[in-house]
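pipeline: protein-struct stage 2 | run 1193 | Transcriptional regulator
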Amino acid sequence: MYTVGELLRQWRHRRRLSQLDLAIAADVSARHVSLVETGKSNPSAEMILRLAEQLDVPLRERNRLLLAAGFAPRYAERPLDRQALSAAWDAIARVLRAHEPYPALAIDRRWNIVMTNGALDPFLAHVAPDLLVPPINLARLGLDPRGLAPHIVNLADVRALLRTRITRQLATAPDPELTALYEELLAPHPGDAGLRIESEIATPMIFRFGGRELSLFSTTTTFGTPMDITLDEIAIESYYPSDAESAAYFTSPDAGSGPPAP
């Protein structure tokens, strides 16, 4: 088991900061940071949280830091439902509904879908039923041959985009289950050799259903100052048409019936 000092040092290295960098950001001395990391000084809970804030440590891991120092956790982890987090649940639902007629969904830290709007439903019409059994994983839904993968024209681009995002996420907050998902779905693929994503927002997903193509790009929204682990780990994925033809589909009278059958 790691000490709180060892954990803080790991996070500092992960953020590529020197002890002086962290000390200046947290308004403490570099010597104090050194003493904390080496275990020669026992930091207060407030000092741990101050350093964690400057290191952008996720709330789940801040609890781990506190426990390592002998303090009680500060951040609750409640289920995202109408009883435990009713205000947040309603806010997410409103955001997703407001994005219609374009698809939008909310995912957790492991890319499991926790909520969608109605515009996404038609895209799932031809997905294998077992992939739609909760928890539905967005990465698996997109890359599995029984999911949306056969309908994605630029699958190599989408795979590279997901690889970039999940790699960055794991660098920020390592997670064994997300690592397993990465190894399952995003291992090196011959078609990906040399492929780089220059801009995430400029890389569309191009779907082909029947003879029609729909091009979409996505943006990601997170809660600004969450005090609950569940909210800290929720992201809203909003999809937009990237050309006039795709936009026309979503505003056409038959949009709700879904893309043409493959």
